[in-house]
Amino acid sequence: MKLSDSFTKKLNQEQLAFLQDFFLHCPDSFLPNLMLKSFPANVTLMSTDDSCSHIYILLKGRLQGIEERASDTEFRFAEITAIEIIGDFELFSQASARFITLTTLERSLCVMIPAKAYLAWIKEDAHALFIRIQMLVTQLMIQSRSDRKNFFLDNRARLLQLLYHECSLAHLPEDCRASGKVCPPRGAMQSGTPFEYKIRDTRNTIAARMGCSVRTVNRLAAQLYDEGYISLVRGKIRVSQTQFALMEAELRNCMML
């Protein structure tokens, strides 16, 4: 299937390469089912118990997985980054409703496909199905490895790992292909030189991601500040390049990277 100009003019090389490979043997008649859509931050793409109306191919951005049935409060348990296919777990398991809620953490770009059309096509396309199986197996391997590591971590190490992950994402530049401009790293705030990274998440969000209380996050943030791993500016967590290097060294020393 040949992608239309509405795709080729808006996507970068990596995004186009994935779509062209995934839809390599897809008939041209399937093209009208593909809709490219941009979502701002804090938008709910799907909610627990919703019907499985669409699947999403996340081409840019990050999503947050939320378990709403675990307790009286939301449990934010997973972060999904591009490039990934979202929403077909339920189709493959023949479930009639969504298992989890997914929201955008930042501006995100997706291809939306009607669920029925997607399932009817991929069942007949061995090449696309093989790619999808590879992606699912890779997800399971990464998650199993992460679960084994996290099982032995204390909350301090979990916070250090979370902050390192956020700063690592900040090193990735925004896609400025359309404007032709050179953009600063995401999350970076220039405070003199070198760059200093501002952690966007609130203490409540960090606590939800770690599975602990806000009081614990506050105590650990104060501890990491005393140890020189972070700076605190009006309560906001910031990490300099030197502090980022210190985090990386400790995590590697503890074999958490």
TrEMBL record:
<dbReference type="InterPro" id="IPR014710">
    <property type="entry name" value="RmlC-like_jellyroll"/>
</dbReference>
<protein>
    <submittedName>
        <fullName>Crp/Fnr family transcriptional regulator</fullName>
    </submittedName>
</protein>
<feature type="domain" description="Cyclic nucleotide-binding">
    <location>
        <begin position="18"/>
        <end position="118"/>
    </location>
</feature>
<dbReference type="Pfam" id="PF00027">
    <property type="entry name" value="cNMP_binding"/>
</dbReference>
<dbReference type="InterPro" id="IPR018490">
    <property type="entry name" value="cNMP-bd_dom_sf"/>
</dbReference>
<dbReference type="InterPro" id="IPR036390">
    <property type="entry name" value="WH_DNA-bd_sf"/>
</dbReference>
<dbReference type="InterPro" id="IPR000595">
    <property type="entry name" value="cNMP-bd_dom"/>
</dbReference>
<dbReference type="InterPro" id="IPR036388">
    <property type="entry name" value="WH-like_DNA-bd_sf"/>
</dbReference>
